[in-house]
Automatic annotation (TrEMBL):
InterPro entries in alphabetical order: DUF1361
Chain ranges passing through the membrane: 20-41, 47-71, 78-97, 109-133, 145-166, 201-219
Record keywords, A-Z: Membrane, Transmembrane, Transmembrane helix
Protein name, as recorded: DUF1361 domain-containing protein
Pfam families for the chain: DUF1361 (PF07099)
Protein source organism: Hymenobacter roseosalivarius DSM 11622
Claim: Oxidoreductase is one of the keywords in the record: no
Length: 232
């Protein structure tokens, strides 16, 4: 009985993936340089926490990239456990958008510099989120179809938006699933059972879900339009 070899990514696919890694790497490097220069200029660690946030945003991207590059049989075995970990850390990427809350005039640094610094970090978080979600949605679509793929992507964005609320306002993080599960479960259950008592919970979740989903659809449409133009 012939043994089928795992299908390797095509040269074009690898070239595109390397191009994406190069662009994201350059953009993240810009954020790191801006943060480092600010520390050098002010001798203060005001925005150093953004480096940690960027690292957390890289975790779901790294997991999705690993799944995308894995051979078929290995990918099938890893999809569920890795996908669960991916979903747990995925909100960390778009969460960086809310770091704009920290923007305010500060002595020693121009206001526009801090604005650019936070915006580059927020942009990187958003692009890492979208790139990661595109990869995972593609894996789900190939196994379960287009409709289920889009259903998964939408659910991931909604859960991520709720995770943004949990992180920004209740100060939970992904690790609390393991280190503080009872308190986390109680706070979530309380908001599910008493929605009218927590309008901010649902306001943040709904608005961020709408914004992130429309942004994601826009990115997918632009990518599709690009492929269509190349095919002419």
């Amino acid at each position: 009985m012939p043994v089928s070899l795992p299908q390797l990514p095509s040269a074009t696919h690898l070239r595109q993936r390397l191009g994406l890694l190069f662009v994201l790497g350059a953009s993240i490097t810009l954020s790191v340089v801006l943060i480092t220069f600010r520390v050098f200029l002010t001798q203060e660690l005001t925005f150093v926490f953004l480096l940690w946030n960027l690292f957390l945003a890289l975790i779901p991207f790294g997991l999705s990239t690993m799944l995308g590059l894995a051979a078929g049989p290995v990918r099938r075995r890893l999809l569920l456990p890795t996908g669960a970990i991916w979903l747990l850390f995925f909100p960390n990427a778009p969460y960086i958008l809310t770091d704009l809350f920290h923007l305010m005039p500060r002595p020693g640094v121009p206001y526009w510099y801090d604005l650019a610094l936070i915006l580059t970090c927020a942009w990187n978080g958003l692009m890492l989120a979208y790139a990661s979600l595109i990869e995972i949605q593609g894996l789900v679509r190939r196994r379960m179809g287009t409709v289920i793929g889009w259903g998964f992507a939408t659910a991931a964005i909604v859960l991520s938006s709720f995770g943004i609320y949990l992180g920004r306002y209740l100060r939970f993080n992904s690790w609390d699933v393991f280190t503080n599960p009872l308190v986390l479960f109680y706070d979530i259950l309380d908001r599910v059972l008493h929605p009218m008592a927590y309008p901010r919970t649902y306001g943040v979740t709904i608005l961020f879900s709408a914004f992130l989903l429309l942004g994601y659809i826009t990115i997918r449409q632009l990518a599709g339009l690009h492929r269509e133009e190349e095919g002419r």
